[in-house]
User: Fold this.
Amino acid sequence: MNQNYIDIRNVAIIAHVDHGKTTLVDGLLKVTGQLKKLETERVLDNLELEREKGITIKAKNASIFYKNHKINIIDTPGHADFGGEVERVLGMADNSLLIVDSVEGPMPQTRFVLAKSLKMGHKPIVIINKIDREFANPDKVLNEVFDLFDELGADSEQLDFPVIYASAKLNYATLEIEKIGIELQKHIEENQKCSLEPILEMILKYVPPASSEEKNKNNLQLQIMNLDYDDYVGRIGVGRIFSGTIKKGDIVEVYKNETQEIQKAKITKIMGFEGLNKIDLQEAYSGDVVGIAGIEDIKIGDTIGNPGNVIPGPRIEIEEPTVSMYFLVNDSPFAGKEGKYITSRQLRERLLKETLTNVSIRVIEDNERKDRFEVQGRGDLQLALLAETLRREGFELQLSKPEVIIKIDEQNKKLEPYEIVVIDLPEVYAGSIIQELNRRKGIMESMETFSHGTCRIEYIIPTRSLIGFRSFLITESRGTAAFSSRFSHYDTFIGHIANRINGVLVSMVDGVAVAYALWQLEERGKIFVEPGTKVYKGMIIGEHSREGDLEVNPCKEKKLTNIRASGSDEAIRLTPPTKLNLEQSIEYIEDDELVEVTPLNIRLRKKYLDPTERKKMSKLLAR
Assistant:
């Protein structure tokens, strides 16, 4: 056994989006000196998109050395679209830290992941975080957490969970809560004595050791729970060694999770985790979490063991995708002018490379059209983030409207996915939001009003009803609503659901948009482009104020004559255009529209640019 530490503790951090788990990991790394105060915050969110969105997308590992113990901390995604990551990484841990916001309390993703953790036999350590927030109510949240444990069928030992109160932002943790909110902030400013060490002490007390001399002597059992990729060594399987030891150069057998076949392989590289860094190892021991290279087609759930004595780990089922979208080669009049990668071959290679590490993404090639690929995932956000990643890498592509994946049951009936939605918002906006959810055929499960003027509504609603809803929610609530959802089940197809009511303003010419024309069009609807924007025939330049699309000319200039007016010309004052980001654009479009994505621009367009062809296709579809 490695002599640098006494034993190994494996603990997963689970929480809902924005409840503070990544900030907490920062604080724990600072406590042990593995992250200097001058270094960047949210170090585990090392992807650019993770920092921008404020969410964890990829499950990651970090190791902390505290009092001669090695603590493997597994950070997990909090957004439901990336929930497939959560279930697997919990299998690498012996216990979990459940982080709950002291104002919001348990949320849908909290419930979903906690149920998995309890089922695995974990006895979670509960951290009530953000006790420095205004309206913090730790006692109420603690009661809600206890009720949730009981509702999920926790046994008597699991119900007797340890509790820590913390403010990861202020680097403060305590077992006995005394001060919250402004009082806590003043207390810390006056005393300057705060630390997250109580959390590390609690981990050592309640997370059982994952390693022992006896386990090291047993046969090797290493199950792959996650995947990584390196351009030099290829696919990397990340998993936990449940027993035995593994050395670089070992000849091993791999039990395939999907086919239940056994194949031989040679371990060419072993990577361990030290702080935030990956380090090369010659040997790894029972209980540790490592990355393995050398097995070209390694997949989630595969088990590595000694030749002739491989012991399969529990079968891991990969959650099925519920939403699909077409990724197409850009064929607009502006194609090839702004991107580095523009061909179908380049797009195909990049999408297939994504499937090597992202097991929740599926790519289906179209036999009839080689310029488009059906990409399936667990939500439109996941697919939007993939498109945004490609865009930043220099790809040009087009995206279709997201569609839910329909199933057919034994009675030949159509089934569609449903989600549980929880929205926290000021009470003043609740009426219009409830009305919209009802229009989208959602069913209210509960509504709770809080003393500080906010309320929480919970709905069960078809997944396709949520496409386009986020943008409406942000606009209607003035950006004050907190929205979360998770997949619930497949149920009866509910029929037609109208999403966007208004039509769009479509350019009838190629050219450059001018201020005079846009000023004239403002009374027709909401404008998406600004003066000087290059446009083409069939490009969407705004939203019509009524139903139905309207052909317009955004390039029409004011005619000049030699007749002088008695007064000065009327000044042109344009309303600032509505700028849609990629997620909003994907939610906005209808079946006959596409989003054109390039490294420099996001444009909306009609599938058929020629108006005559559009009318012809709409008549065919109407039959």
Summary: The chain has a mean pLDDT of 83.
